[in-house]
Amino acid sequence: MRFFVVCPGGLELPLAQELAEIAQLPESQQLGKWVIEPTPTSPTGGIGLAGPISVAMALNLHSRIASRVLLQMAQAPYRQEEDLYKLASGLAWEDWFTSKQTLRVDVTAHRSPLKSLNFATLKIKDAIVDRLRDVTGDRPSIDTAFPDVRVQAHLSATHVTIYIDTSGEALFKRGWRDEKGDAPLKENLAAGILSLTGWKPGQTLFDPMCGSGTFLIEAAQTALCIPPGAIRAGMYGNDAKPSRLAYRPLVTSAHGFGFQRLKPFQESAEQESWAHLKEAALTRILEKRKQFSSVDSLKIYGGDINERLVAMYQGNWQRAQLPDQPMVRQIDAMASKPPSGVIHGTMLLNPPYGERLVIKGGRGQDRSLRDKNDEFSDVENRYELNLETGRQSAKRTSRESLKKLQAQEEQDPKFVEFLRQFGQHLKDTFGGWNVFVLTADMALPGQLRIKESKRTPLFNGPLECRLFKFEMHEKRLNNESSTNG
């Protein structure tokens, strides 16, 4: 079987490295041979691979960077909408799901000659429904919100590829993030950025503007070998209930993964493989708990001036099945210091804007940018496939509006002064550290007055960003005497 593993744009290389690591797990090798396609030299929004059908279970359970795992059903040339209908109606959908299950179909395109993606989507949906009606005598219902089965098709200039989605809900929905801060960051993007920084478990990690803790929780789960899909896989007891502050439905084991609702994965052999994957993961967690026996041993630290966000982080930490309470302080980033005795470490932050922005211990008052950014957090990120869609124009307009609002915030003299002071604080206090900053502000290095050593293009939803790396040099002692004379 051939799969396409979707990821945020710019994370193809860390995703390829992660897929190789998953493939090398003993329980993954027992599933059969994996063949991972070469890493693309330009952004493609994902990586292809081939392997037995059970590969989908390991990928959905273990991949921290993937957004979705798509199983290819067919690929063929096309010229008109009727070609899409013929291809889709010729597939044995009855072998994958029943007419009693609900369905959703999505189509994306890149340089397709077809005029209407909505019409193309309708033709593929009709083909699937007609096929099941002809074979079973009944037709499935359509549910665009919470379907049992998701089918995706991609149109290039000449070919159509049809996939069945083995993930269901997007994989960045881990099941622990009940609440958000004011600068939403998807969990799989955070995990990919951690990989780009080169941070390893056991090394010091600090986020002085941690918000609801996305970077730090992803790091802690990585250190403890907790699979990102553990909650959705039902590896723990009762699922947490969402609070009144939840900004999206909390994904639980009741939602699980898309493959659990597909017939081939309900065969006894696949069920045994699924159980073995989870058992092996639990064994690995127990081993890591011995290595990191206390929260102190994780060396993962956070800070934020907003008391409400600190409380959110603490709640998220507990829902993520992490030990004790996180090492976090309610503190202004301008007052942050390295943990006691730590000379070298990694700082990673996604500076907030709008209401969460701290100016000398205060808060900005402009809510407009934050509210605009919130719109993007719940939208299915079709840019992860690097594709054109019928909604691209609207999304580009929203993205441009966000950039304008952000530009206004950046021109605020108080904001500019805050960045200058924070840059000086980094120089004075964090010498010897590597500092990584994710931002949509391409001029950030100049505002911090620090020269970046590396910049990596990334996408946070539809918003183009940069991951800047700053190497903070240790200060030389000013009282060194040159000679005795």
Give the gist of this structure.
The protein has 14 helices and 14 strands.
Descriptive labels:
485 residues, 7-stranded mixed β-sheet, 34% helix, single chain, alpha/beta, disordered C terminus
Q: Could you explain how this protein is built, in words?
A:
By secondary structure, the protein is of the alpha/beta class. It contains 14 helices and 14 strands. The strands form two sheets. Strands 2-3-1-4-7-6-5 form a seven-stranded mixed sheet. The model is unreliable at 354-395 and 479-485 (pLDDT under 50).
Residue fraction in strands: 15-25%
Based on Cα principal axes, name the global outline: globular
* Rg value: 24 Å
Please tally the β strands and state the result: 14
The residue ranges in which pLDDT falls below 50 over 5 or more consecutive positions are 354-395, 479-485
The structural class is: alpha/beta
* H/E series: EHHEEHEHEHEEHEHHHEHEEHHHEHEE
Distance between the termini: 78 Å
Helix content: 25-40%
Mean pLDDT: 86
Tell me the strand order in the biggest sheet. 2-3-1-4-7-6-5
Count of helical regions = 14
Instruction: Give a quick account of the main beta sheet: strands, pairing sense, barrel closure.
Output: 7 strands, mixed
